[in-house]
Amino acid sequence: MSPTGPYEQLKDDLGYLQLGRAAECFATLAEEAKAKDWSHVEFLAKVIGEQAASTTNRRLAARLRFARFPYRRTMEDFDFEFQPSLDRKLVADLATLRFIAENRPVLFLGQPGCGKTHLAVALATKAVEAGYRGYFTTADDMAVALVQARREGTWASRLKALTAPTVLVIDDVGLLPMERGAAAAFFHVVNTRYERGHPTLITTNRGLPEWGEVFGDPVVAAAILDRLMHNAVVFNIKGPSWRMREHQALEEATTAEEQTGRRLR
Prior knowledge:
Rossmann fold; 265 residues; five-stranded parallel sheet; 12 helices
């Protein structure tokens, strides 16, 4: 068996160290290094750079899977012209992620379809891309899971799953009625995150004075709002619904098509 040369040994060692991308691109970059007369440091920097980019992308993909966002949205995708009531400068300031260090909850209020979830998901996605852990849940799913966890004796682990991520999105608060015991469980999540300095992002179509009705307990609702409103950023989106706009556009297009068809006949 012939001895292994330094070139083959180095490539094998990269694989052994589980530097998969570095091992994959090693030969190609070696040829490029010869052609472009790179120094040893330049060649090493290229190989390690490929591995670092691969590791970064893999970790980001894992954080995005964990976050369970319902879809990918970005701030750049949002049509601010359609929602002129939004303060674009304030949204841009949130996009710097300074709100995380300052533990500032963010509340998006507005009617269904006005873009609340889009903004919350886009903001949380930006945080995940920056290296933070994020998680998405609807208020109903969270309440049901917490009440079930109490019954099954898995409360501690379920609470940790909701309070450990740096950024938590709770979507559609008040859309569906909560079962008995859910309000107290909801408070535990909000309060624990508040104490740990982890900001919570909320979307709701109910006005804050209605939260006593939402949670079925004005005292608990007041305690939840006390934690959420401290140092909070609140958006009250008063514009129309995206889905209604798309529905109207579809109806208009269908009507125009039918009228064209009748004329042709």
